[in-house]
Amino acid sequence: MRRAARLGSGAAAVVPRSRTLVLTSRPGFSNSPNRNAARSNQRSFQSGSKLDSVAEATVIGGPSPLPEVELPEIPETPTKNKRVTIGEILERRRKAGRLVAPTAAGCDSGVFKGDSTGKPPAKDLSHHLSFEAAIREPCKLKQAARHLKTPGIISLGGGLPCPEYFPISSISLNVPDYLHSPTLSPPEVHPALQDITIGKYDTLPSAPDRKEYDLSIALNYAQAHGSAQLIRFVTEHTELVSNPPYADWKTCLTVGSTGALEQTLRMLCDASRNDSILTEEFSFATALETAHPLGIPTFGVPIDDQGLIPSQLDHILSTWNPSERRGRRKPHILYTVPSGQNPTGATQGPERRKQIYDVCSKHDLVIIEDEPYYYLQLPPTTAPAATPTNTTDFLESLLPTLLSMDTDGRVIRMDSFSKVLVPGSRLGWLTASDRFIERFLRHAEVANQGPSGFSQVILHKLLDETWGHEGYLKWLMVLQKEYTERRNTLLKACDEHLPKEVVSWEVVRAGMFQWLHLNHHLHPDFQTKSILEIEEEIFNSCISKGVLIARGSWFRAEQDLPPTGLYFRATYAAATPENMTEAIKRLGVAVRESFRL
Amino acid sequence: MRRAARLGSGAAAVVPRSRTLVLTSRPGFSNSPNRNAARSNQRSFQSGSKLDSVAEATVIGGPSPLPEVELPEIPETPTKNKRVTIGEILERRRKAGRLVAPTAAGCDSGVFKGDSTGKPPAKDLSHHLSFEAAIREPCKLKQAARHLKTPGIISLGGGLPCPEYFPISSISLNVPDYLHSPTLSPPEVHPALQDITIGKYDTLPSAPDRKEYDLSIALNYAQAHGSAQLIRFVTEHTELVSNPPYADWKTCLTVGSTGALEQTLRMLCDASRNDSILTEEFSFATALETAHPLGIPTFGVPIDDQGLIPSQLDHILSTWNPSERRGRRKPHILYTVPSGQNPTGATQGPERRKQIYDVCSKHDLVIIEDEPYYYLQLPPTTAPAATPTNTTDFLESLLPTLLSMDTDGRVIRMDSFSKVLVPGSRLGWLTASDRFIERFLRHAEVANQGPSGFSQVILHKLLDETWGHEGYLKWLMVLQKEYTERRNTLLKACDEHLPKEVVSWEVVRAGMFQWLHLNHHLHPDFQTKSILEIEEEIFNSCISKGVLIARGSWFRAEQDLPPTGLYFRATYAAATPENMTEAIKRLGVAVRESFRL
């Protein structure tokens, strides 16, 4: 086992913080074994030649055979899904040294992971790939860039503009300090605001306060997987939260989960193969609208207050008959939102998750775990509840992700910053097996080329350089507190203003949406009007009374079947507490009028 | 003809600058006729019900019947592709008043256009749509948002986070002042730098220096077409440069031209219909790699130093025989880069463009006009040349775009900020007929949801609010000057260091690439080695000598045919002048060695 440093090995051995993890410029290319700067026994996960990742991170500089005693205290035993701590990550970074990832540097997220010893490799699920995904070839021009690693080479190759022509010399942000301040106040009343500045050449050795990322890198062309600087953060964050129990998981940035879902569906689904998708019987309308134009129908799985019912999922798959299912073969994809599901707000409990995973494993399904609301987990009741007081407890309090139980590598998890930072970042990340990530990236290269450099450098500056993992988790605790209050306000209003003889609900445990069930059997026009007609009547009445609410029928996975229940979705994310209460009052009037109560 | 103002009509009539163009929040919905705030006789282009745009801009406030004498001096006669001036645009804006486009406001770019009277409508080319594009439905949730226009309505509808949870209260940029400073220096030596700041609530009436766009809007969810604020700028810019000669052209933002191309191909091409694409015989490698996984082959059209040869294009189309063309039906798409084509650098002259357009019209082709290098138009020789001294002359000096001669609405033009501002913006725009833009957006809604809000608000702040059209055009003049110098440096080095007995070139007239032709007939191994073998030998020799250059064969539209010539592509965009000269010197040595000169 060797490790490498950019500076002379002697200096590196004495001053570990001067070590340098160098990612090659626009690579994808190295045949050298993947050596981990942190000596964390990082494996090099070489997949089949067809699926080889273009991008590969390397560590340059002479490998220095350091005595064992100097090595970091990272456990050599299999971690087996044990939680990784922030302290371990900080120590790993310290040992790895400065990250050097210049313009358009390739990056294998694996170099930022901890020890994978003892974890099994992902199963080969490449038989699920679509024709389009299977035949993709790496970009020729990006492949050629591997030669830029050659010392002293001058490039007349790629058409990358010089940063001297970028007409922005610095970007400054004003942000709350969640790392150092003990106050968990929301941003606009936070007592400790700070200005942080990103310069054009902050990574130059001559920079006064040298950084790892700057505008000259972030605003130029980049690899589709996103910058190494931000990939490091999301990879570590994924370890903190999920620490997937198989070895060759990877991450890459996305342009947000909406785009990531479309790319994933194109990667896995072929209309000509009679593919289809299973999902909650009420499912995110935009997800359904993403699948349908591709010729991919969606089929609903019955749900209860914990979402998908595993026995029903198993039954559907075990008894699948194409002739009863519009000619579609047995599905190989489950799309699910486990926490604060959209629209029902249902949140799968720990046992439920394990059961769903096991059914999917039994039937060889790929699971798309779409988790925009994961961090908005809320107390089970509106009564005052003990909440985590530190980030360790906060992490412990989070429900296990499907990814955290994914021994097969069949979960494709989509994370998003839209609900927890700003939707306008159009930036999220994917975690999946190396095989899937690699195919996904071959598409991203010709589709969106990864997220905006402005978004990347601003999020890196805020999350990584300013807040760090500790500060970011504190920020998530702030959000949790805020959304708990918002939910409680809505529920109090429901309790006071909705006619409980016809409207019922479960206290939502995560996310942004409260699902309301109206007993249509009690509607006076039950015999003469359809559910859709009653729903429309109430919806229109709400509009005329000044409240917009989402109709349950919009979210039905199978729009061709008649609805069996009457539902509405209400968000507590958008309105002020006063307006929310007023809106529920108006809804109550509309329901009473329709039901003639 | 009426116009509207948000304030009392009396005040509006007296103080035109207080008028307010209001775009509805998350609309797409209004059935009201499209009224133009600037009284510019803007038509409302209603397409068929299937193709109706979701987004529609409206003007609210009481219509005030103002006396004719107060109306702006915008000519009532057909403009017929006459150049629009910056003065006219500024006057139009002044009359329209403040743009009010709140969070996720819908926007029909048509409201920002000048008079279209007398221009014909686009031809209906919807028979070219792919199956996927034809069946797309608007997003249900975005449609529902039309109700937000209802006065006093409270939304429990969409899950948009409150901006109070955006943990960034302001963003500041340091930028050169190209509007006021007479100096056309590049950014890093510019004498007038200024700090500009974007606040979270700059659009509030209570804001000290009230603006039209802020972080609370830009960083929340938005419509896929992009913000009205930036659409206005690119629409006006398109008028300044192209002023398309048909009535119902529209613009929308894209996540850059790479992504826009993929979306466009999916919109227009079906493998099952035996579709294919025509392009330059040497074409942008990434474009080819975008088409192929979709099952869409590319066929090359012969080129000369002005790019595509119209007679050859006509011949190919007139004599198309599927059995000789891998079973493909006669193509209906031309993909072309008219200015500084990648890789050949060829630039179509004005007459050439018209001829190409006419052939495409004759054979009913849709033209994808991909123009990242359009503004990098360079003098015809390296001799000192008179360059435009003001923005009017600069605009006059630009080659006519295919869009500017598009009477049919068959051009889909892709513009990009990558080469003229920063590639990392991942932001560009599309100009095409309303029908195509609308279908494109139905895809964007479920694919990427439009560009990053950080990119949008930063570019708006810089381009629109700080520089304006005048400052932006001056900036483009700076770039033109800089790239002229870079090109001349490369050409001087070629002249001095390449063996002209075997290497020849045309002085490139636009873009970033110089195309070099090597006469392989003069190669000593001509009889025993293939062109590809000689090309590889020289390429590898270059690498070993320390220069990376692009191989011509990478760009061949038809990779299955044997190459007929030996070419290399050299960029003058990336290296310093000294390095560029050194690199060409090394290339010269490699060529001499291979040719044994």
Q: Could you please describe the fold and organization of this structure?
A:
Chains A, B: InterPro entries: Aminotransferase_I/II_large, Class-I_PLP-dep_aminotransf, PyrdxlP-dep_Trfase, PyrdxlP-dep_Trfase_major. Chains A, B: Keywords: Aminotransferase, Cytoplasm, Pyridoxal phosphate, Transferase. Chains A, B: Its main location: cytoplasm. The structure is a homodimer of 597-residue chains. Chain A contains 15 helices and 21 strands. The first copy, chain A, has 597 residues and is α/β, with parallel strands linked by helices. Among the domains of chain A are: 185 residues, Aspartate Aminotransferase, domain 2; 98 residues, Aspartate Aminotransferase, domain 1, CATH 3.90.1150. Chain A has a seven-stranded mixed beta sheet, with helices on both faces. In chain A, strands 17-18-21-20 form a four-stranded antiparallel beta sheet. In chain A, strands 1-3 form a two-stranded antiparallel sheet. In chain A, helix 10 links the parallel strand 13 and strand 14. Chain A is globular. At the A-B interface, helix 3, helix 4, strand 5, strand 6 and helix 7 of A face helix 3, helix 4, strand 5, strand 6 and helix 7 of B. Strand 19 of chain A pairs parallel with strand 5 of chain B.
